[in-house]
Amino acid sequence: MTFELNQNVNLHVIPTNKYKTVRLLVRFSAPLSTETSSKRALLASLMETNSLNFPDQTSLSKQLSELFGASFGIGVSRNGNEHYLTLGMNIINDHLVPSGTSVLESAVAFLKEIIFAPHIINNQFEPETFLREKENLMEYIRSIFDDKQTYASLSLQNLFFARSSSQRTPSFGSIEGIEKETASSMAAYYQQMIAQDKIDILVIGDVAEGYVARCFKDFGFSDRPYDKGPLFYQQSLQNVIHQKTEQLPVVQSKLNLAYHCDIYYYDELYFALMVFNGLFGGFPHSKLFLNVREKHSLAYYASSSVEPFRGLLTVQTGIDGKNREKVLRLVNEQLKDLASGKVSLDDLEQTKVMLINQFLLSLDNQRALLEQTFLKIKVPNADISQEEWVKRVQDVTIEDVQAVAKHIKLQAVYFMEGEKEQ
């Protein structure tokens, strides 16, 4: 059930007796932009570390332990054209604590403290905390260069989203953006976020809807306008394939490919897209895994993944640098095979079974179920029953997979070449 606490501030309660814990989530939504991605990532770090009344990590941890070992964290993410700053908290169910004690009420009070009383004094974040968290975040971003798989993935996105700086920028921002921020500029942005972001509060667990609503009744948010733009990022197909090669000190070269895919979350062909991806590179029986990795021994790993909010399908491979052209050709052949319907009925059925099993497992995962609920709020077409979901997967035909394959067009190639022997 959904309760409107204020204009563009909504509480969503999902009662279920599946879990012994209750999960609370407060999500701030704003339009995605290069500048604010950095601000929001830094703000998440500042708010997670301490608050005005819990001025250090020790006092914050002590408060959580008094809530019967509650866990708490703040992170950033994005979907399509939206950026999210999310506070998440897990608490024990009130039924499992002494009577007269409400962990839920205490948890709501804790979240209220973190959200409305950050460590801001004289219109700026406490300087020592600010400088520490700023440097920690920049150090984290620098460390990504050492994770060559992540670095290759981000480099590929830079090529694919050449026309959109906001899409190129990771959800955690950039070193350049974070460096510009001051303790006072972040305090000003905090005030803007609190007043202007769209707010969704989600609570899942063995709870009574009316009781949860009473706990959040006077939480503290005010009415706010929210200009709801398009959720999906849509990029036109280009005739030019963007390519980049870098030589770096790695033993294993990496060849990553980005494809334009104009099939979006819960579009007419969305379920066929999931089946297509499972057949192409999503599972161990996929064409990329069996043909590129196993049969021809041309890759240490080969897989594909889909981003249905940004019109993007990617292929990731780890290869010997000398096999670059062979791997490119072989990946293209697998795509052509799917476009021409060269799929066995056994592989098709196995893919469906694996997708359905993944989905059913996700229904037992509290965090996954909460995210599914949030997406149903954002995309009403996604609000279907478990039975309908399974049926739509089972109804996908080889012809549907062929139709999807014709939407997949190569747009970017990133090659990380290992250093050649002297």
**C-alpha Rg, in Å?**
24 Å
Percent in helix: 40-55%
Whole-Å distance between the termini? 66 Å
Q: If strands are numbered along the chain, what order do they take across the biggest sheet?
A: 1-2-8-3-5-4
Amount of beta strand: 15-25%
Order of helices and strands: EEEHHEEHEEHHHHHEHEEHHEEHHHHHE
Q: What count of structural domains? A: 2
Low-pLDDT runs of 5+ residues are none
CATH top level of the largest domain is: Alpha Beta
State the helix count: 16
> How would a crystallographer describe the biggest sheet?
6 strands, mixed
Describe what you observe in this structure:
The protein has 16 helices and 13 strands. With 422 residues, the chain is α+β, with helices and mostly antiparallel strands. The strands form 3 sheets. A 6-stranded mixed beta sheet has the order 1-2-8-3-5-4, with helices on both faces. The mean pLDDT is 95.
Question: Can you summarize this structure?
Answer:
This is Insulinase family protein. Helices cover 44% and strands 23% of the residues.
List the SSEs and their pairings.
Blueprint: E1 2-6, E2 9-15, E3 21-31, H1 34-49, H2 57-66, E4 71-79, E5 82-92, H3 103-116, E6 120-121, E7 124-125, H4 127-143, H5 148-160, H6 165-168, H7 175-179, H8 183-196, E8 198-205, H9 209-216, E9 242-248, E10 253-261, H10 270-282, H11 287-295, E11 301-307, E12 312-319, H12 324-339, H13 345-362, H14 366-378, H15 386-394, H16 398-405, E13 408-418
Parallel strand pairs: 2-8, 9-13
Antiparallel strand pairs: 1-2, 3-5, 3-8, 4-5, 6-7, 10-12, 10-13, 11-12
Helix pairs in contact: 1-4, 10-13, 10-16, 11-12, 12-16, 13-15
